[in-house]
Amino acid sequence: MEKTEKDAVAKDYWESQAKTHKGSHLASWSDNFMIELEIDAVGEHISSGDHILDVGCANGYSAFQQLERHRDVGSITGVDFAENMIKQANTLKKAQWSGDVIKFEVGDINALQFDDASFDLVYATRVVTLMDTWEEQQVAINECLRVVKPGGKVILSEPFLEPFTLLNALRQLKDMPPLVEHDSNRFFKKELLENFLMNKGLSFTVNEFSSIYYLGSRFLRELVTDPAAYPGFNPINRIFYDIEKDFSGGGFGIQQAYIITK
Ligand SMILES: C[S@@+](CC[C@H](N)C(=O)[O-])C[C@H]1O[C@@H](n2cnc3c(N)ncnc32)[C@H](O)[C@@H]1O
Fold this sequence. Notes:
- The protein is an alpha/beta fold.
- The chain is built from nine helices and seven strands.
């Protein structure tokens, strides 16, 4: 498939996710516990008065949650390339919030419509991974860095190949089929990302905010329960979500947050 055709298919997918799931978290991911953990991981870095950009904000689900939890922010702007996502976010905004403390616009992570150094905090959760190649992912990261102020932060919460490989090695020990996460070929490689950031002289920390949850929900769950008995919600997920909030680490969390200071 040609690149332009591939891009159009990907965009259509997100347009239809917005139509189908409207304001629900399902528009972006079915794993609500992961979304909650991710919102907490980003929220730790929000300070009073911050002007924040949520890149690839989907229907605004996480942006609204951040605003609920951090009412003293300066502003939250959400951008997404899917018009239907932005329409949905604006509908929810009208129903819940007045003024410009939160706003949504169509925008592309590869060419953001904002001036350099416009925001205190820029975050992208599960968006950069959607760019086809590491070269394109670098363009997207550079755009996020461009629009954040010097001293401000960019948070990237993205899936990584190393924990994916580790989990699959564990699963193999117990004769489980490998996890087949869609788009795993575009998962980040920690060394590549870290070298890229270090070459730019940027400091960063890593929040492995999902390790225990992934160990429970993507490995232990199948060892101790029959997944067929729980076609929808499996209570093991909640147990490991609760543990995750008190303890993390171990390298099993496919989704990890890099907190980069400009
Ligand atoms: C997996 S969802 C994540 C949504 C949201 N960040 C969250 O945490 O729930 C990916 C989102 O990125 C958007 N997206 C994909 N490519 C994009 C691009 N080039 N520029 C802006 N948004 C994009 C999609 O439309 C979709 O809403």
